[in-house]
Amino acid sequence: SSQMWQVGKRQASRAFSLYANIDILRPYFDVEPVQVRARLLESMIPVKMINFPQKIAGELYGPLMLVFTLVAILLHGMKTSDTIIREGTLMGTAIGTCFGYWLGVSSFMYFLAYLCNAQITMVQMLSLLGYGLFGHCITLFVTYNIHFHSLFYIFWLVVGGLSTLRMVAVLVSRTVGHTQRLILCGTLAALHMLFLLYLHFAYHKVVEGILDTLEGPNMPPFQRVARDIPVVSNAVLNTTAKAIALTL
Amino acid sequence: MSNFEQFHFDFYQSNTIDDQEEGCNSYGSNENFYGSRKNQSGDQAPDGAFALSDRPLSSQSYTGQILQPTCGPSTLSNLGYADGFDEEPPLLEELGINFEHIWQKTLTVLNPMKPADGSIMNETDLTGPMVFCLALGATLLLVGRKVHFGYVYGISAIGCLAMHALLNLMSVAGVSHGCVASVLGYCLLPMVILSSSAVVFSLRGIPGTLLALLIIGWCSLSASKIFTSALAMEGQQLLIAYPCALLYGLFALLTVF
């Protein structure tokens, strides 16, 4: 059995040496809390100077935490609205959506930037898009809890628009040529704003009637009707059962 | 009778040669050698084996699991177990469960304002965390949810892996998986308090949300306090506290909904 131990140790050390490659990412996580806060606030302020390249911090801690925050907000929104995902899990869907957006759109924009000759590296693109998700987090956090459609549209335009403008301005400052600037910035703006719209409408189905029984009569009534009939009957059964149990 | 003595000699002999690096798990592996070396001829000198009979006790000492500096062969003979193997350590010590340390760590978690001692997390102790996970699952059962043990273990496992990766990236000195799992498991205790309060009153609504936020803050403050003191990452406590808060927020989501 000592041989088995040796073999096992060798395999484990091989796996660990693979894992040791994680050290490449080490310099991107070397941040102070003050820096993170400053960058978060800056991500909502569009820069005015687009004539010389704007500095982008190549840091991955802030973007990673923002993506995880977005996952948490999505999960919370799905749970408060009793969204049922038919194929898959809530957690998997939330993680897949957020990480898919961050990594996928960053790669796509990096590819476009390569085509349009923009001065930006992959880490910088990841960082820029990650910090751009701060606006999404704020909007969704507010509108998943306060359910007014007009409020959402205002937040979408103002908050989403500000963070998109910041990203666009930074990209414009790093690209030459009008057509290239238009392609890059148009794509990024469209994708970013549409993602916020998608997140709001796809993950927060509001079911009329259930909210009234759970949270009392102080919530404003809604015009939207439930799409899934089994969900409604299931939830109605559950609520009546809970109400009966409470009165016992 | 002579066969029995032969086995005895082989027993001690194999112990000293092969188990030098095994430390406290040598008792279990001795059984294997006992079986495999049954047919060896008695080439070893008998008095050599007798002289070596003290060595198995020290190589069987359990310094790996419990930090008890004064434990040695002399204290073992004082334990006096009547059934045959005098040198067998007590079960709890052999398993590495030290109630005093568990209690100390629990007190550290329960009082987030008390500065943590960095050395208490040197030993990987998963007993306390396991107890707290089971307690969380049990209180969730009491609240009336579906059986959620799988979710608790799954979220714990993935959360430990993610925190381990993040801490290794952010700190100069690395951490082991066991240390991260141990700390995160201990700081789950306030979450058990939250789910027990869910038995008494429903957590949906403003008071429930506020209580959940308070408990999440408590858990993440304790965890980040222990991590920063163990890894000497002063000034970055908030940066560690935030991912911990996200992880415990998931547990709170499980408890509330």
Kindly list the characteristics that best describe this protein:
heterodimer; A: 248 residues; mainly alpha; 70% helix; 0% strand; B: 257 residues; transmembrane helix (chain B); YIPF7 protein (chain B); membrane (chain B); transmembrane (chain B); Yip1/4-like (chain B)
How many strand elements of chain B?
0
> Care to count the β-strands of chain A?
0
Helix/sheet category of chain B: mainly alpha
Taking all residues together, what is the mean pLDDT of chain A? 82
State the end-to-end distance of chain A. 62 Å
Can you give the mean pLDDT of chain B? 72
Describe this structure in words.
- The complex is a heterodimer of chains A (248) and B (257).
- Chain A is mostly helical.
- Chain A has a domain at 61-213.
- Helix content of chain A is 70%, strand content 0%.
- Chain A has nine helices and no strands.
- Chain A has helices spanning 2-19, 33-42, 61-80, 90-115, 122-145, 149-173, 178-202, 210-215, 229-247.
- In chain A, helix 3 (61-80) packs across helix 4.
- With 257 residues, chain B is mostly helical.
- Chain B has a domain at 124-256.
- Chain B is 66% helix and 0% strand.
- In chain B, helix 1 (2-18) packs across helix 2 and helix 8 (127-143) packs parallel to helix 11 (189-200).
- The longest helix of chain B has 26 residues, at 206-231.
- The N and C termini of chain B lie far apart (68 Å).
- The chains are: A mainly alpha (248), B mainly alpha (257).
- The interface between A and B is medium-sized, with 22 and 21 residues.
- Chain A: Keywords: Cell membrane, Cytoplasm, Differentiation, Glycoprotein, Golgi apparatus, Membrane, Transmembrane, Transmembrane helix.
- Chain A: It is found in: Cell membrane; Cytoplasm; Golgi apparatus, cis-Golgi network membrane.
- Chain A: This is Protein YIPF3.
- Chain A: Its main location: membrane.
